[in-house]
Amino acid sequence: MRSCLRHRLFPALAALFLAGCAIFAGPRTVTVPPAQLQTALARRFPIDVRYMKLFDLHATRPVLAIEPDDGRVALTMDVVIAPPFVRRWQGSITVSGVPTADDSRREIVLDAPRLDAFRIDGFDPAMSREITRYGADFAAQVLRRVPLATYDELRPAFLGADAVPAKAAATRAGLVVTFAPAQ
């Protein structure tokens, strides 16, 4: 009886082990649809940023857009800018970046930041264009605070805890994340 159990149990365990190895024999990709990214992003807002130790910016209501032709992800946000001793300004900004894996933070973040649009109610277009020229640093500060997703949010259970994103790309289908075994 014991021998019979051993003969049945050992092959079953070996098959399970090999199947587990086969599942993660190489890199695997996961596609995160824009709607799922939008939901995760909304949970991270509102955010507050102090810019150049002069302006306090309060950003709310992010709207995500995938730009597959440029390989970028854009975020349009409502903003309130509060400079010292002056009335608050309201409007919207659009910042974009290239999705990339940040292992130190264990997050998918937007790199190569760019301020794509800046609109403040009551500003004339010339003033908005002038501010947009200095926007790369501003966009970097905003994007640094807002990850698209964490590794734990993205990693499917079947990949296991040791799988980490090796690459992220913006496509028409959404964010495509390639997972690889941790080094």
* Mean pLDDT, all residues: 81
What's the shape? Answer: elongated
* SS element count, helices: 5
Task: Bin the strand percentage.
Answer: 35-45%
Query: How many strand segments?
Result: 9
The sequence of SSEs as H and E is HEHEEEEEHHEHEE
Low-confidence stretches: 12-24
Structural class comes to: alpha+beta
Helical proportion, percent range: 25-40%
Structural description of this entry:
By secondary structure, the chain is an alpha+beta fold. The protein has one domain (25-181): Uncharacterised protein PF07273 family, DUF1439 (Bactericidal permeability-increasing protein, domain 1, Super Roll). Helix content is 30%, strand content 44%. It has 5 helices and 9 strands; from the N terminus they run αβαβββββααβαββ. The strands form 2 sheets. Strands 2-3-4-5-6-7 form a 6-stranded antiparallel beta sheet. It has a 3-stranded antiparallel beta sheet with strand order 1-9-8. The longest helix has 22 residues, at 2-23. It starts with a helix and ends with a strand.
Brief summary:
It is built from 5 helices and 9 strands. By secondary structure, it is an alpha+beta fold.
Features:
183 residues; 3-stranded antiparallel β-sheet; 5 helices; 9 strands; 6-stranded antiparallel β-sheet; Bactericidal permeability-increasing protein, domain 1; alpha+beta; 30% helix
